Amino acid sequence: MAIQLVTTAAELRAASSRLLARKHGTSQGLVPTMGALHEGHAQLARTAVEQNDVVVASIFVNPLQFGEAADLDRYPRTLEADMALLEAEGVDLVFAPEVDEVYPDGEPLVRITAGTLGQKWEGESRPGHFDGALTVVAKLLHYGMPGSAPGTLPAYRAYFGQKDAQQLTLVQRMVTDLNFPVEIVPVPTVRSADGLALSSRNRFLSAAEAEAALVLSRALRLIEARANAHEPLGLASAQALVASQPLVELDYFDVVDPRTLEPFAENCQDTPFRGEALAIIAARVGPVRLIDNIPLSS
Questions:
Q1: Are 48 and 31 in contact, with CB atoms under 8 Å apart?
Q2: Under a CB-based contact definition with an 8 Å cutoff, are residues 293 and 162 in contact?
Q3: What DSSP string runs through 5-49?
Q4: Residue among 140, 29, 124, 134 at smallest CA distance from 86
Q5: pTM greater than the 0.85 cutoff
Q6: Which residues are catalytic?
Q7: Where does residue 83 rank: exposed (0-12), middle (13-18), buried (19+ CB within 10 A)?
Q8: How far apart are CA 104 and CA 159, in angstroms?
Q9: Which long-range contacts does 137-140 make (Cβ < 8 Å, 24+ apart)?
Q10: Coil, strand or helix: which one is 129?
């Protein structure tokens, strides 16, 4: 069956209910996106299709997540290509609402607040970003909730990439703290053959900048290798590796607790690494700000 496009919450609920009934489905998956899809999004969709009877992908460029109007205007809109990618992966429904469908009264007066977890790292560099992101994710999780026949309650899952590690952590905390009836499924970061984490922003890099950006994944892999060898992580030398690339302006590079995002003070410099942690990095490469991370365990 061809993929179906809907643009209102009412259409989405009706269409998902029909599909669940037609397929005798017991589960529905949601893949929230802002469009400009790439292989990383394809992996999210692929995982959702493998695990659910009905899959919805949302495409919505959320104005609350952009600090400057110019960045919002520049964000690529590629709906036709996005739908082709999602259809190829077996997604059933695309929910692509207009801004006034999601925010019918204009900018919302009440928002989800990311709290202290959202004020560090990306939150410090982009004030208010996570409040906007969580507000729209909360709305999308409500929109994507499966319609069901009386007496049935389909399983409900939502899929987020691990590349946006802080956002994933915040969504998981929001769902837990506010009792959302949805399972959050993390999907590993997808990388190009040379190691660069896939991002919709990569298209804005020149060839020289794309080559320079590879230092981010190299530095992360250096930390990972030391963790796997139970060695001190030597974060300072990995930071120096990034600083040696003149086209890269480092914002932050640290090792943090994956649950609290607090710096992982133990075992980083002078003693063998033990436990679980997350190496996170953000840098500006030319006009583009890139983020990446890698889980560490021993």
A1: yes
A2: yes
A3: EE-SHHHHHHHHHHHHHHHT--EEEEEEE-S---HHHHHHHHHHH
A4: 29
A5: yes
A6: 41
A7: buried
A8: 26
A9: 137/32, 137/112, 137/171, 137/174, 138/112, 138/174, 138/178, 138/180, 139/102, 140/30, 140/32, 140/58, 140/60, 140/95
A10: helix
For tokens 């950006």, name the residue: 213
CA distances from 239 to 217, 231, 234, 243 (A): 12, 17, 9, 6
Residue with tokens 């969580």: 134
Query: For 216-254, what is each residue's pLDDT tens digit?
Result: 999 999 999 999 998 889 899 999 999 999 999 999 999
| Token output for 90 | 């077996």
Task: Tell me which residue has tokens 């410090």.
Answer: 124
Query: What is the average pLDDT score of the chain?
Result: 93
Scanning the structure block, which residue is given the tokens 């002078």?
270
* Nearest CA among 53, 48, 49, 50 for reference residue 25: 53
Cα(274)–Cα(272) distance, rounded to whole angstroms? 6
